[in-house]
Write a structure and sequence with these properties.
Blueprint (H helix, E strand, L loop, with lengths): L28 H11 L15 H15 L4 H8 L15 E3 L1 H6 L2 H14 L7 H12 L4 E4 L3 E5 L5 E5 L9 E3 L2 E4 L2 E4 L4 E4 L6 E4 L2 E4 H7 L4 H4 L4 E4 L2 E5 L15
Antiparallel strand pairs: 1-4, 2-3, 3-4, 5-6, 6-7, 8-11, 9-10, 11-12
Length: about 260
């Protein structure tokens, strides 16, 4: 503005420009400080930040405090200029969020709210309510399963597992589709071979591995698949029995089962 710039001058440093991703812009300064403190990272401040020799610092030290006193919300202002810069359209919305168990369980109730609200912003959902937050805390203290459905999303966590947030629009909450001889789920697909069909463990609860039959629900549990998602994991059926569990559709890092 000082240099006479137009709207473009206020929309610099996009969160994603097609090549470069800036993930920290999704969080406020206070939220970043909480995570840095909890993880024990050292912070090194640029020695020039306190010098009024530079224009940016004179603005930061003199003008910004006046604007904040008048109600300026810099985080909201930034997103007013970058609202559609990263997550645009139904197909590009984030399908799930996974929060590491060790980090989440170490936080205070206050810090949990900040962390969850930060992730809910990414999903473009409302901040977590006090009652839901207290229910999550109660389940954690009792070492019981967190499985909470709200009007916008589903929270799920078993003792010792990571916490998952599934917005209600998430394709993970929907069964896979059989489209023209292909299995399609969460933007992944696989062509079925002659004699193969699509199934779920609700119809086929066991899989034969060697000479033994194994419970598919137990396999999915051991692989860390959340309970609400297990019924949607695609199974390849051949000769009225399960030939393959497509775990890779849930997590790219996992191999389909059996791995042979």
């Amino acid at each position: 503005m000082i240099r006479g710039g137009g709207p473009g001058a206020l929309s610099t440093l996009s969160p994603f420009n097609g090549k470069i991703l800036r993930p920290l812009v999704f969080f406020t300064r206070e939220e970043i400080s909480i995570v840095v403190k909890e993880l024990g990272y050292k912070v090194f401040e640029d020695e020039t930040n306190q010098s009024d020799q530079y224009t940016r610092n004179r603005i930061r030290h003199t003008i910004l405090p006046l604007l904040k006193n008048e109600g300026l919300n810099s985080y909201k202002l930034y997103w007013n200029f970058h609202e559609n810069a990263f997550l645009t359209g139904q197909s590009q919305r984030k399908q799930r969020i996974r929060i590491h168990s060790e980090l989440f369980e170490s936080l205070s109730l206050f810090d949990k709210k900040h962390l969850l609200d930060s992730h809910l912003k990414i999903l473009r959902l409302h901040p977590i309510s006090r009652s839901i937050l207290e229910e999550i805390q109660r389940c954690q203290e009792m070492n019981s399963v967190i499985d909470i459905q709200t009007g916008e999303l589903r929270y799920w966590k078993s003792p010792g597992s990571d916490l998952y947030l599934f917005p209600n629009y998430s394709e993970y909450l929907q069964p896979p589709k059989w489209n023209g001889g292909r299995i399609e789920w969460i933007q992944k697909s696989r062509e079925l071979q002659p004699g193969e069909s699509l199934g779920s463990f609700l119809e086929y609860p066991k899989i034969k591995v060697g000479a033994m039959y194994k419970d598919i629900s137990e396999i999915l549990r051991s692989e860390g698949v959340p309970t609400p998602i297990r019924k949607n994991i695609p199974l390849i059926i051949q000769n009225h029995s399960v030939r393959k569990i497509l775990l890779s559709f849930w997590d790219d890092r996992k191999k389909d089962y059996p791995k042979i």
